[in-house]
Each structure stands twice: as structure tokens, then as C-alpha cells.
Write a structure and sequence with these properties.
The chain has an eight-stranded parallel barrel with strand order 1-2-3-4-5-7-9-12, surrounded by five helices. Strands 6-8 form a two-stranded parallel sheet. It has a two-stranded antiparallel ribbon with strand order 10-11. Strand 10 and strand 11 form a beta hairpin. It is globular. By secondary structure, the chain is of the alpha/beta class. It has a single domain, classed as Glycosidases (TIM Barrel). The model has no long low-confidence stretch (mean pLDDT 96). The chain has 14 helices and 14 strands.
């Protein structure tokens, strides 16, 4: 019988610096775009940090990283995905010399992981563009950011070349289409941002990704470099050919980003996307060669939901929570935030990506955001009876196993928000994903104490049995 998960499968969890580190201005750190968005990535931008921005303190990982990594090790993590805050290394983003205190912090974090045999998987840019680069240069619309990003990447690649093997360039790079400030640091308001400038910014990010991939391989040929996108399979709302074609074009919009990363060039269908939007991408000399010669080793992605498309969306009620838009699927249930729950969509995403690219895949985000209640168990210990999270993850991991049995090459799985953190989309703490409950609330109150949820031991057993305990 086929083994469901390969022996070297990388089980773990995922976080992002801006959502859990806190210490937003400690030890020389500069401001990022996250420090002025107290309502989340789609909300208002403030003049500076405000008291209601929960990300400023996060869950104080900056001072509690040893405690948290020890808990990850107790669960048996093989890998831990995190990000480096660009502004800890280059506070404004355009300096020539890095901030040593920031480099030392990540030395300590990675050393702590390695102490327990946990491989770090590090994202270079996880919605954390330095605020100075956003205001002064209009973020990634400006080609100068490529040089700044190269300097930052070279600095951390060199510093951690013997500590970190797995790297991701940009988190959910395709999200820039829907959240240009959060994802691309673009200061221009979305309503004033031309498609030309938006797609030119995307081009700059794609070139930057390829350039730092080249740098990484020069510094350590054993590095494994991946791209990272939002995966969101799109279904036609009816079998009418018009709706099927609509869903097909929606899928292409997302494939554009992974096509360039994996195949090294813009796909032919991009010509129509650009033509329809009056876009003419400006290529600098050498851009084509850089993209073609520096493709990624693996493709990673987040998966939370699928979406539904129609050629006539005005005829249907719009979905409440789906990140990339779309219509609600009448056959699916939704989370408390309106995200539709579709385990088989993950199976489809894995097969679609692997059929298309035939390179290893890595699921680096998946999980259920829910309101958790802290209660005492039969032994008088504080916990959360989060069977709903266990059911969600069990159903999704069953589909991962199904894809493995189909022959899909999957490197690993890191559940999102393995410890409670601040939501990227809404900046709430009540939207919890973790196996570990953190006593902090939307009003900023709380002790920051950590408590194991029921799902903690469930996931520990999944890892111990390499997925055999899944039901």
C-alpha cells in the first residue's frame, strides 16, 4: 500500500514577523507599512503608529521566542516558517549598512530552532515593506526597490548561510492585485493607481525575486529557493460555457505570477491581460535573461478557500469574506469570517500546480481562524476545546495525503498561525488560528501567557505518526 506521506515530509507551522514579534521600535527597528494599518491590510492608513494597532506589540515573540520555539519543538515541528522584518535589518530600507541588533535577533531565533532540530523556512518579504520606501519611492512602482531588496537579501543570505536552507522571496505575491499597499508598499491610493503602474510594480517584484534567487545560489548552492502565491481554485457557478470561461480567466490571473517564477517568462495569455488594461511593461536591459535563468526550486502557497466565478456576477449575491473576491458557493460552509471551507479545493490546487509545473510543492499556509474560548479541562488546566479546528485540519490533511497518493511531490505543510497572532486582513486577535492560545485580546488587554489548545496534542500526534493518525 502507498505510504500517505513521505518519510522526509516537513511538518510544521508558520508565522509572520509583523503579526507576532511586537517590539516594533526596539533595537533600531524602523517602521513598516504594517505599523500604520491598525485595521488590517485593507483598512485605513494612519499618519504613524497608533495605540489601537495590535501589531505593534503582537504577541511579544521578540522577548518570548525561546518559550514559543520550545512549544513548537514539543509538537515535533520539523520546519518552522517565519519572516525577517526588513526594517529590523535596514530600518528605512535604503541604507547602505545593516542594523547589527536586528541581525543578532534572528541569529538567536534560528539558533534556537536548530537547537531542537527545526529547519527554519524564511520569507524575505511578508507584507513588511519599509514605510520609508513606501512614502519616498511609492513602493514597488519604483525600480529602485530592486536594488534595495537585493542589498537586504544579500545581507541576510550571507549572515544566515549556515543556518537557513529554505527561503521564500515574497509572501502571496499575487495579493498585490487586491492589496497594493500591504503587499507592494504602494503609497498611491488604490483608486488613483493606474493598471500600468500596478503591473509595472509586479514586474519589479518578479525581477527582484529572480535576482535574489541568483544571489542566493551564489552564496550557498545548497539553498532551496521558492516563490509563494495565494492558491484559490475557481469554480464556474453553473456549467454554462460563459461561466466556465469566466472561471478559466480568473485562474489565469493567479497563474501569471507562478508561471513567471517557475517558467521564467511571461505566458502568452499575459499579452491579452496587458492589452485589455492598456499596460505596456517596461523591461530594463537584462530583465528577460534574469527571469529565464533564475527560476525557483519549489512552489509554495497558502490555501484557505476556493471561489466561484460567473460571467454575470451582478445576478448573484457577493461573498462576504473571500480574499480575492468571487461569489459564495452554495455547497460549502463558511468560517466565522465568511471564508468558505473547501478541503477538496486543496486537493485540486496541489494537482493543478503539479500538473502544470512538475516541481516540488510546499503548503506554507492553511488553517482556520475562529473565536476560541479559554476553559479549564478535567485536570484544572486552561485550554481551548477546539474540535472545530481539528476537524478542519484533519479534512484538509486528508486531501494532502490523497494528492501524495496521486504522485504529487509535496515537500511539507506548515499550518498558519501555529501560535495565535494578529490577523493580517482584520488586525484582530480574536481571529485565532493557533495550536497555542495567547492571552491577549482585541482591546489590547491580557497577560500574554501561552496555553496549549486541544489541537496542540492532536497535531503532535499527526507529526509523530507522519499522518497515520488522520481519520
Amino acid at each position: 500500500m502507498t505510504k500517505r506521506f513521505p518519510e522526509n515530509f516537513l511538518w510544521g507551522g508558520a508565522t509572520a514577523a509583523n503579526q507576532y514579534e511586537g517590539a516594533y521600535n526596539a533595537d533600531g527597528k524602523g517602521l513598516s507599512v504594517q505599523d500604520v494599518t491598525p485595521d488590517g491590510g485593507f483598512g485605513q492608513i494612519t499618519d504613524g503608529p497608533t495605540e489601537d494597532n495590535l501589531k505593534l506589540e503582537g504577541i511579544d515573540f521578540y522577548h518570548r521566542y525561546k518559550e514559543d520555539i520550545k512549544l513548537f519543538a514539543e509538537m515535533g515541528f520539523k520546519v518552522y516558517r517565519t519572516s525577517i522584518a526588513w526594517t529590523r535589518i535596514f530600518p528605512n530600507g535604503d541604507e547602505t549598512e545593516p542594523n547589527e541588533a536586528g541581525l543578532e535577533f534572528y541569529d538567536k531565533v534560528f539558533d534556537e530552532c536548530l537547537k531542537y532540530g527545526i529547519e527554519p523556512l524564511v520569507t524575505l518579504s511578508h507584507y513588511e515593506t519599509p514605510l520609508h520606501l513606501s512614502k519616498e519611492y511609492d513602493g514597488w512602482t519604483n525600480r529602485k526597490l530592486i536594488d534595495f531588496f537585493e542589498r537586504y537579501a544579500r545581507t541576510v543570505f550571507t549572515r544566515y548561510k549556515d543556518k537557513v536552507k529554505y527561503w521564500l522571496t515574497f509572501n502571496e505575491i499575487n495579493s498585490v492585485l487586491h492589496a497594493p499597499f500591504m503587499s507592494g508598499g504602494i503609497w498611491t491610493k488604490p483608486e488613483d493607481l493606474s493598471k500600468q503602474d500596478l503591473y509595472q510594480a509586479i514586474h519589479h517584484e518578479l525581477v527582484a525575486s529572480a535576482k535574489v534567487t541568483k544571489i542566493a545560489r551564489e552564496i550557498n548552492p545548497d539553498f532551496e529557493i521558492g516563490c509563494m502565491v495565494i492558491a484559490m481554485p475557481t469554480y464556474p457557478i453553473t456549467p454554462h460555457p460563459d461561466d466556465v470561461v469566466s472561471a478559466y480567466h480568473s485562474e489565469r490571473q493567479n497563474y501569471l505570477f507562478s508561471d513567471v517564477h517557475v517558467r521564467g517568462k511571461y505566458p502568452n495569455y499575459a499579452k491579452k491581460i496587458f492589452r485589455d488594461n492598456n499596460v505596456e511593461i517596461e523591461f530594463a536591459e537584462g530583465d528577460e535573461e534574469i527571469l529565464l535563468e533564475n527560476t525557483v526550486d519549489f512552489l509554495s502557497f497558502s490555501y484557505y478557500m476556493s471561489r466561484v466565478s460567473s460571467a454575470h456576477p451582478e445576478k448573484y449575491k457577493k461573498g462576504r469574506g473571500n480574499i480575492l473576491g468571487g461569489l459564495p458557493n452554495p455547497h460549502l460552509e463558511s468560517s466565522e469570517w465568511g471564508w468558505q471551507i473547501d478541503p477538496q479545493g486543496l486537493y485540486l490546487a496541489l494537482n493543478d500546480f503539479y500538473d502544470r509545473y512538475e516541481i516540488p510543492l510546499f503548503i506554507v499556509e492553511n488553517g482556520l481562524g475562529a473565536v476560541d474560548e479559554l476553559v479549564k479541562d478535567e485536570n484544572g488546566e486552561w485550554t481551548v476545546e477546539d474540535d472545530y479546528r481539528i476537524d478542519y485540519m484533519n479534512a484538509h490533511l486528508q486531501q494532502v495525503g490523497r494528492a501524495v497518493e496521486d504522485g504529487v511531490d509535496i515537500m511539507g505543510y506548515t499550518s498558519w498561525g501555529c501560535i495565535d497572532l494578529v490577523s493580517a486582513s482584520t488586525a484582530e486577535l480574536s481571529k485565532r488560528y493557533g495550536f497555542i492560545y495567547v492571552d491577549r485580546n482585541n482591546d489590547g488587554s491580557g497577560s500574554f501567557e501561552r496555553y496549549k489548545k486541544k489541537s496542540f496534542n492532536w497535531y503532535k500526534e499527526v507529526i509523530e505518526t507522519n499522518g497515520e493518525s488522520l481519520k
